[in-house]
UniProtKB/TrEMBL annotation, chains A, B:
Residues 13-112 form the HTH hxlR-type domain. Keywords: DNA-binding, Transcription, Transcription regulation. SUPFAM superfamilies: Winged helix' DNA-binding domain. The keyword ATP-binding does not apply. This is Helix-turn-helix domain-containing protein. It comes from Kribbella sancticallisti. The keyword Transcription applies.
Amino acid sequence: MESLRPDMFDELCPSTLNPIRFAGDKWAPLVIRCLEDGPRRYSELRVPLHRVTPKVLTQSLRSLERDGFVRRTEYAVPVRRVVYELTPLGHSMLEPMRVACEWAADHWDELLDARELSLANPTDRYTRHHGNG
Amino acid sequence: MESLRPDMFDELCPSTLNPIRFAGDKWAPLVIRCLEDGPRRYSELRVPLHRVTPKVLTQSLRSLERDGFVRRTEYAVPVRRVVYELTPLGHSMLEPMRVACEWAADHWDELLDARELSLANPTDRYTRHHGNG
DNA sequence: AGAGGTGGTTACCGATCGGATACTCACTAC
DNA sequence: GTAGTGAGTATCCGATCGGTAACCACCTCT
């Protein structure tokens, strides 16, 4: 299993633009993708998710744990070590996520074009009554 | 094309529990499903979405329009009539939404069980140090 | 002229979300 | 006994979200 690259998510569009969201909060889908290939330590997750503060990452992990997508295991020896891994339920999310990613790959540009277009021509819908019509 | 029933969404779980979210805001996926079978008027949408206030519904529709999922068409005669319909891009969302709904149908109970279980046994993770051990 | 319908808008409000910054506790290695 | 590491917490803050309540412009029908 390869280690997670720091630029794993650098190419992604900001998630506020994301038209499809899974499992709770903003970062949860990215966390799930990090765990796709096997268990990871907290500090490992922080590498690709370097823009997420520890508080927020913990929140996200706790929420995923509560929902049964992720299992948290703590080892105390020889040094403190906490690993997170997908449960079967978590794995089952990968399929719909894959479909959604495929959708995004196919249609992302259309969406962005629509946004730019609507920014360029704001619909001036209810200002008609200012005229003398 | 059948008219939309008022109880169309009554059986749905509150959307805060929804592990999969599409296209922007809270109500957007429901709006898309309302438009699945063809164009609908604003007042038609308000029937199944009777728990959504006009402000919020309008916001949702505007956002879907900006993103190119929905087309808004206004007719002034003989009475004011505004219809909303899915664009091809909007239609293309139905497929990933279907997959996500299938996922939910198959795994919803697991998720709810996990939640109840974690509510019943809150993980008392960092209170160990209160003891004498 | 007034009632009613259609498709909204505006102002306000509380809750939640995500982020910034700083701090902590347990443990190990030196 | 001090420094470092791993895995977080604590506190504060601003922005956004969703909701309530009230209002509005336009049209048609009677």
